[in-house]
Amino acid sequence: MRVPDTQPFVPVILGGDIGTYSLAREFHEAYGFVSVVVPAGSNGVLDYSVAVDVRPAGTMTEADVVVRYLRELAQELSPTGQRPLMLFGSLDLQVTLITRHREMLEDAYVIPYVDIDTMERAALKENFYELCAELGVPHPVTVAVDMVDHAAGAPAPKNLPYPLIGKPADSSAWVSAKFEGKKKIHTITDEGDLLSLLGRIAGSGYRQKFILQEYVPGGDDHMRLCTYWAEQPGHVTFAAYGEVVVEEHSPIVLGNSAGIVTGVNEEVINHGVRLLEALKWEGFGMIDAKLDPRDGQVKFFELNPRLGRNHYYVTATGHNAARFYVRRYLGEEYDAANARSVETGSYQRVGGVDAANAELLYTVLPLPLLRKHLRGTVGEKARRLMAAKRVVNPLMYSAEKHPRRWAYLAMNAVNYVRKFRQFPPRTS
C-alpha cells in the first residue's frame, strides 16, 4: 500500500516487529492514513498490510546508511517540505539513532523524542538505578561493572547475592557485541559463571557498563509494566498499567510480553510519575517492573524511552497512542481535521494523572495456547476476560483484507505453539 499524495502527514517508522505494525495500525485506525515503515528487510508482520508502505533500508545498525536513506525518503515524501513527516523508532537502537542524529534529520522530520542527554540519563541502566535510589523508588540490588576497567584487568565485584541477572547498561551498544552464548538477559549462577561471562563480553569489544542485579523470584505473571505520556517536559498527564500473563522466551524476543491484563495500580503509577518528572521527560516512556513476592513491592527494572513492542494494550483501552503524538507534535488542528475514530477510553484519576482504567486482555498468542499458561491471580483475571470476550490481538485488524496476510497470521499462530514448546515460560 503506497502513501497517497493527498495524505496530509506521513508517519515514518523504523523497525519491523509487532510494535512497528501496531503503531502503523494505530495511525490507520485513527486517521485512515498509511505509514511508511523502514525495516532492514520486510517480513510477514508488515507484508500485504493496508496500513503499511514498506521501504527496506537494508540495515538498521549502520547509522550513516540509515540517515542518508531517511533524508532521501523525506525528499520523496515531501518534496517541498510542506507535508509534515513524523519519525519514530520501534527499538532503543532506532530511537537512539534518531536522537543522536537529530541535527541531520529534524529539518525534514518531526522528532517526538527527548534530547540525547535526557534519553541516556534514563535509558542507560546504571543512571536509572541511581535515580531510583535518589527518589526512593523500589528496585533490585544492583552493581554496574565498568567493562573498560574490567578489560584492563580490574577484578570482578565480590560478595554478590547469587543468582544474578546480567544485562547491558546500553542496549543499543550491545547490538554490536558478538560472543559465544550472548543473550538479551543472562542468568548468572555463581562467581565462576560471572567471570566466564565478563571475559567473553570483554573480548567482544563491548565497553559500556554491564549491570549485575539480584534475581527477583517469581514467574512471568509477576512482571508489571506501565506506559506514561508527558505532555510537556516534566508534566506527566496519562498512564496505562498492565500485568503480564506470560512472556516470550525464545532468545531473540526474550522478555517481551505475549499477554497483558490492564488495570490500575496507584503505587506503580505514582513511582513512575516521580521518575519521569525528575527526568523532565516528554512524550511516551514505558517502565518494566516486577512484583517481588518476598516483600510485596513492585520493583522497577528500566525505563524504555519509547512505546514498547506490546504498547497496543494502551490503544486497546480506548486511548489511541497515535493521537497523542499528533495532538502534541503536529497540533490539535491536524487531529481534529483528520480523525475518523472516537476515543472511548475512561480514566481514573491517580494523583495528577489520568490513568486508563478499562480492563481487557492483550495477547499475540492464539487463545488455546495462552490458556495453557495461565498462572496465579493474573491468570485468573485473563481467564475472566477471555470468558467476557474482552480480548485484543494487535495483528488481528479487521481492515486487513489480503488473503496472504491472513495466511501468514495462521502460520504465525502455529509457530507460537512450536516456540512455546521449545522455550516454555518461566514459572518461578
| CATH architecture identity of the largest domain | 2-Layer Sandwich
The tally of strands reads: 17
Q: How confident is the prediction overall: mean pLDDT?
A: 94
Total separate domains: 3
Number of helices: 16
Q: Distance N terminus to C terminus? A: 45 Å
Task: Indicate the low-confidence ranges by residue numbers.
Answer: none
Q: Give the percentage of residues in beta strands.
A: 15-25%
Provide the helix percentage. Answer: 25-40%
How is the biggest beta sheet arranged? 9 strands, mixed
According to CATH, the homologous superfamily of the largest domain is ATP-grasp fold, B domain
Shape: globular
CATH class of the largest domain: Alpha Beta
Gyration radius, rounded = 21 Å
Strand-pairing-aware structural class: alpha/beta
Could you please say which CATH topology of the largest domain applies here? D-amino Acid Aminotransferase, Chain A, domain 1
Describe the structure.
Helices cover 36% and strands 22% of the residues. With 428 residues, the chain is of the alpha/beta class. The chain folds into three domains: 10-111, Rossmann fold (3-Layer(aba) Sandwich), CATH 3.40.50.20; 141-214, Dna Ligase, domain 1 (2-Layer Sandwich); 220-422, D-amino Acid Aminotransferase, Chain A, domain 1, CATH 3.30.470.20. The strands form three sheets. Strands 9, 10, 11, 12, 13, 14, 15, 16 and 17 form a nine-stranded mixed sheet that branches. A four-stranded parallel sheet has the order 3-2-1-4. Strands 5-8-6-7 form a four-stranded antiparallel sheet, sandwiched between helices. The radius of gyration is 21 Å and the shape is globular. The model has no long low-confidence stretch (mean pLDDT 94). Its EC number is 6.3.1.12. It comes from Neomicrococcus aestuarii. InterPro entries: ATP-grasp. GO terms for molecular function: ATP binding; D-aspartate ligase activity; metal ion binding.
